[in-house]
Amino acid sequence: MNKSDITKKLIERKRAKDVLIAVHRGCGGGNIIENTISAFEIALKYGGDIIEVDVAKSTDGKLYTIHEGQEERLFFSKDNVQTLSSREIESLSYRNGNSFKVKQKVEELEAVLQHFQGDTLINLDRAWDFWDDVFELVRQRSMFDQIIVKSPVKETYLDVLEQYDVPVMYIPIVKNARELNQVLARNINTVGVEVIISSEQSDFYNLEIIKDLKKRSLLVWLNAIRLNDSTVLTLGSDDDTALLVNEDEGWGRILDMGADIIQTDWPLHLANYLQKRRLRTTS
Q: Fewer beta carbons under 10 A from the terminal one: N or C of the chain?
């Protein structure tokens, strides 16, 4: 597939909607577990345009949709899944929102790709150390037109993308102008940029660089998720502010910064807000 074929779905989706909603790990909660087909289906039902899927790799090379490092919360286990074999991972029992064991098991990436093959845009995250394995699965299903990968900016990651024989859609996570320039200097299919604006000292605070990204036809991905009480991703404008204080102070400020894609844990509420802002129809 050439670059035009690969980016067609993303471009068409953006033309149809002023702002796209990327849903963080799908919609988990209650008895629905994050990073599962059920959670991703709910995310799409609630207005999501892109499902964000975390990927981990077992010691014997199988790929799963799970955020490694979250094992104590998800399984009451201290073992990182990437230190476990596929047999060990598949024997794990998830805990639901009430801390009870449930029958849901960790799902294989291959099963998730098979389920959503066709039209859904999928952001595969946290897979940067084994992209070659991920890309092989994607190649087998001819799904490069649905897949977007993200990563922090490192020369080794950029090397993989630049040397790969398919122009995989890429969105780097950039914290400063130096990192942005590293990416733009490469022959990579960069379709957008996730901009981190952690403080008023950020290179992106005056928004001039964001305006320049738009001139380059690069999508601006801004993150509304609230990871914890201290991590700032977009100047404190986030889901918590939108839901607990004022939607305009949360999601509204992110829109005013120029977001083309907003990542959220609350897609239904964000979709409703975008409708109020006349940035999305009810159909």
A: C
Give the helix ranges, DSSP H, for the chain: 3-16, 37-45, 71-75, 86-90, 109-116, 131-140, 155-163, 177-184, 208-215, 239-244, 247, 253-256, 267-276
- In tens, the pLDDT along 234-251 reads 999 999 999 999 999 999
Is the C-alpha dihedral spanning 62, 96, 38, 228 positive or negative?
negative
Rounded Cα gap, residues 189 and 182, in angstroms:
14
Nearest CA-CA partner of 238 in 48, 203, 247, 276: 247
Residue 152 structure tokens? 């922090």
Note whether 235 and 197 are within 8 A (CB): yes
- Per-residue confidence band for 280, with pLDDT thresholds at 50, 70 and 90: confident
* SS3 per residue for 42-66: HHHHCCCCEEEEECEECCCCCEECC
Region class of 253: left (phi > 0), else alpha (psi between -120 and 50), else beta: alpha
Residue 76's pLDDT is 97
Output the pLDDT for position 279: 87
Tens digits of per-residue pLDDT, 71-83?
Answer: 999 999 999 999 9
